Amino acid sequence: MSDIFLGLGGNGENQSLALSRANRHGLIAGATGTGKTVTLQGLAESFSANGVPVFVADVKGDLSGIAMPGSPTFKHADKLEGRAKELGMEDYTYSDNPVVFWDLFGEQGHPIRTTITEMGPLLLARLLDLNDTQEGVLQIVFKHADENGLLLLDFGDLQSLLQWAHENSKELSGVYGNVSKQSVGAIQRQLLSFEAQGADHFFGEPALEIDDFLMTDENGRGHVNVLAADTLMRSPKLYATFLLWLLAELFETLPEVGDPEKPKLVFFFDEAHLLFDDAPKALQEKIEQVVRLIRSKGVGVFFVTQNPIDIPEEVAGQLGNRVQHALRAFTKRDQRAIKAAAETFRINDDLDTEEVITELKVGEALVSTLDEEGAPTVVQRTLIKPPRSRLGPLTKKERAIIQSISPFEGKYDETVDRQSAEEVLAQKTKDAVETAEEVAEKGEAEVAKRPRKTKSMWEKAISRGTKVAAGGMAGAAAAAVLGKKSRSNPMKSGIKSAAGSIATDLAGPIAGRFVRNLIGGLMR
Question: Which helix (H) or strand (E) holds 124?
């Protein structure tokens, strides 16, 4: 199959989405209760059936039902089956989908984590609502960590380094420029506030391996990765920044493929306006850049929002596949949105698009997609197909059963706390106190004769390196530093263990500046 059936147009023709054009991005818009979630669910299960993995945020908690087949006993089953019959879907049967549940807080799915280093100072500054001066200080803290081999993995690492920066602000100022205690203190306060919102769950290890979002099941169906976002939505800035980070990770990790026969992954941004609310112009420009460039990586991005004017024009201009549900003209802003939405479609002489947008029934939408030549099709009033999976949430028991058979069961569920900036700085403080006591007792000259209390990064690397063959060690170390695929646990056994540990030590000064996500890198 080369396309996905969307529904039946008013002209009697099937409206479809070409798989080869699904990486040209899309928009699903409409007022509350007009059918956006049903459209999203139907699209997601169709992509999965065609072997395309999907990532979708479950904002309201009702998308989890995509993991289970629908049922004739469902209270709206007669409407779904009636619509399928009206659309001529003779093969319509209820079916489930291969779903993997994720949750930043680890409560309703596998935890998703990244490290402080990989998030980078730009996105952290946005998360923490820092001003330009404070962001500059955060950049300096990151640079100091890079140059001194201090791994920033979790909140504890960043807090420890900020505390050190507060106590050594004069030393930092002498090297990097002005670092005031007031600015460091402001960052510390914002970090504590943000931690209280639960953001600390997102930072640490094992960090997400992005390839785990790109898998298919034994039947060739793409995994539907469902992010439980109902709790996450209470921290909208964390939600938006997480989604932007994920896009950047995908861009950084995936190879160039141009326009493939079908996407490698389709990404649904629900409540998409949160990505752009209060975002500085520089950040909006980078969002536009990532959305434009990620197409060549075979990733399709669909923005889901109530009002199409929530999407900046520079981004909206890249959304070639559009499903517009009903809009209501209650305010002048609503009227502008209706006019703007109508003007984005290729004109249909038999359809007053602006008027029809306000008349669409639940389950109807205006549809225009890109054809095989990449040109937008004429807009058609379309009755959208019903999904085959359950409409509505899973029970806790059902979710637990699906979670227990997940291919990633046990991989991400337990936190790994390896040596990083927090432990290094704590050890240095302990060493300094003990050395001061020794100097007072024995004298500086005598103390200077003994070896240093804590091995340097290079001494530790050499010590570990003697346990493995040099050639194998070098190759594994390079993979651990640059490849990201062993981030979840680089301490397993043999060569991988030693090389992974060396990579840990080298990651700060050597790889930190290069492995940071695309957005942070572009904005530094």
Answer: helix 116-127
The amino acid that residue 149 corresponds to is: G
In one-letter notation, the amino acid at residue 266 is V
Least confident among 268-277, 282-291, 342-351, 490-499: 490-499
d(CA 274, CA 233): 10
pTM of the model: 0.80
The CA distance from 505 to 502, in Å, is 5
Rounded alpha-carbon distances, angstroms, from residue 270 to 58, 312, 415, 431 = 8, 15, 28, 50
User: Distance from first CA to last CA of the chain, Å, rounded?
Assistant: 44
Q: What share of the chain is helix, strand, coil (3-state, %, to 5)?
A: 50, 15, 35
> Phi and psi of 74, rounded to 5°?
-60, 145
pLDDT over 60 at 490, yes or no: no
CA 445 to chain centre: 55
- What pLDDT, in 10s, does the model give residues 276-334? 877 667 667 778 888 888 999 999 999 999 988 889 888 999 999 999 999 988 888 88
Query: Could you report the per-residue pLDDT of 136-184, keeping only the tens digit for each?
Result: 999 999 999 888 888 888 888 999 999 989 999 998 999 998 999 999 9
Question: Could you tell me if residue 177 is left (phi over 0), alpha (psi between -120 and 50 degrees) or otherwise beta?
Answer: left
Question: What distance in Å separates the CA atoms of residue 408 and residue 515, rounded to the nearest whole number?
Answer: 24
- Position with higher pLDDT, 457 vs 250: 250
CA distance 334 to 142: 44
Give the whole-angstrom CA distance, residue 133 versus residue 115. 23
Q: CA distances (Å), 343 to each of 65, 92, 348, 366, 444, in order? A: 35, 35, 11, 12, 79
What residues contact residue 323 under an 8 Å CB cut-off, 6+ apart?
6, 26, 27, 28, 29, 39, 365, 366, 367, 384
Task: Read off the tokens for 174.
Answer: 């002498």
Among 130, 129, 192, 133, which residue's Cα sits nearest to residue 158?
A: 192
The alpha carbon of 364 is separated from its chain's Cα centroid by a whole number of angstroms, namely 30
Question: How much is the pLDDT for 288?
Answer: 84
490 CB-near residues (< 8 Å, 6+ apart): 480, 496, 497, 499, 500, 501, 503, 504
Tokens of 224: 């539907």
pLDDT at 479 (0 to 100): 37
Please name the residues in contact with 387: beta carbons below 8 A apart, sequence gap of 6 or more: 38, 41, 42, 45, 66, 70, 80
Output b/e per residue, 132-143; b: 16+ Cβ within 10 A: eebbbbbbbbbb
Give Cα separations from 65 to 70, 135, 224, 265 (angstroms).
8, 42, 12, 21
Task: Compare 60 and 88 and report the one with higher pLDDT.
Answer: 88
